[in-house]
Amino acid sequence: MSLPASLYSSRLRWDLAPNRLTRLLDERRSAGAALLDLTESNPTAAGFAYPSHQILAALADPRALSYQPAAAGMPSARAAVSKDYYSGRVDPGRILLTASTSEAYAFVFKLLADPGDEVLVPRPSYPLFDFLAALEAVRVVQYPLVYHSAWSIDFDALAGSITPRSRAIVLVNPNNPTGSFLKQSELGPLIALAREHNLALISDEVFSDYGLHPDQPLVHSLTAVTDVLTFCLSGLSKVAALPQLKLGWIVTGGPARECEQAFQRLELIADTYLSVGAPVQLAAPVLLGLRTRLQDQILARVRANRAFLASQLGPRSPWRLLETEGGWYAILEAPRIQSEEEWVLSLLANDGVLVQPGFFFDFEREAFLVLSLLTPEDVFHEGVRRILARAPLT
Ligand SMILES: Cc1ncc(COP(=O)(O)O)c(C=O)c1O
Questions:
Q1: Is any atom of ligand 1 closer than 6 Å to the C-beta of 126?
Q2: Phi, psi of 339 (to 5 degrees)
Q3: Does residue 174 share a domain with residue 316?
Q4: 206: Cβ below 6 Å to ligand 1?
């Protein structure tokens, strides 16, 4: 007798069991333990001063009471992204609005890939790729970033992972959690590779305003690429620290004809869902105008927390802080006296400090701890002191 077919698709592995860290965290929380959370990535929960009245007033535009669907987004909101975010360098005709950057990925994957096709994604990087791709029945193939006092793309490995089913190279610029930007010297080889293999480039630029070294030769955006079909993704969630308002976008670029064809197809996909709400689109000019107020606070916090962490590590420290060029995270290499998982579990159980293990981001080897630099400074300082005390100077 054959087994009954599952009710559920096999797009995801549907592994709903919590991992050891989540189980321990639930236990600690239900026991009422005071925790120092060094993983906070939600800017609205990190103690920043939001101009609340202006945000709420912008969302109360009476025009939101009428429904005027537009597949690529309201012309006024697309114009605002063009003018207020890209300073007019990107034509609004190339901008398509989405409810989030995650949805932007889903649209671009639907556009480019058939079930079973592949997208190349960096490693280490953002863990949501596995889900975003799997939900579109697309396979993720990782290419390595290598660290030699800065992170860079391993081009040989990238070229070696291309197959006839590859459709796109994804880069996260700057990457999460390594904070590494694409180097100017990497842009040419990347475009050449994409051209040679007829691949699109997908550039996730959500953190690109959070660079720490404006004078370094880094590529902040791929919106000006004209040689290959390119999709640059971003949104209010990081740009204006407003993830709850749900507004993202895709900038399509590349050779004029391909760009136009891709845009028309994206519009058809977006028209199927019409997922972006009217209030946030009408508020877009105001929200984008307010972004530097949030970005300045975030950058100040990120810099201060990073400087504090660096100041705690002398030349004889068994810990190592990896270099970065931007983003919201610090990567701390822990002494290999125990595994990454043991580090994270013991810090939580014994010290009440919550950090993320490198394996959440698929680091090639152990032991790395990922710390959110958005963490309020007092919590960050105490958390760092407790972590470092677990392996003091030898
Ligand atoms: C690199 C990266 N891309 C995309 C996203 C998702 O952004 P959104 O909230 O716009 O879906 C995140 C969220 O943390 C991220 O870290």
A1: yes
A2: -75, 165
A3: no
A4: yes
Whether residue 260 sits in one domain with residue 223: yes
Take residue 33 and report the two structure tokens written for it. 């333990």
285 C-alpha vs ligand 1 centroid, how far in Å?
Answer: 21
Question: Closest ligand 1 atom to the C-alpha of 176?
Answer: 1
Which residues lie across from 231 on neighbouring strands?
202, 252
Judgement on whether residues 43 and 106 belong to the same structural domain of the protein: no
Same domain? For 357 and 369 the reply is: yes
Q: Whose CA is nearest to atom 4 of ligand 1?
A: 101
Query: How far away, in angstroms, is 191 Cα from ligand 1 center?
Result: 24
Domain count, the chain: 2
CA-wise closest residue to 152 among 130, 178, 121, 176? 178
What are the tens digits of pLDDT across the range 102-130?
999 999 999 999 999 999 999 999 999 99
Give the span between the Cα atoms of 361 and 327, in whole angstroms: 15
Going from the Cα of 122 to the center of ligand 1, the distance in angstroms, rounded, reads: 15
Q: Give the residue-averaged pLDDT of 129-157.
A: 97
In a domain, 15, yes or no: no
Contacts of 75 (CB under 8 A, 6+ apart): 92
Q: What is the pLDDT of residues 338-354, one digit of tens each?
A: 999 999 999 999 999 99
What is the domain extent for residue 269? 52-289
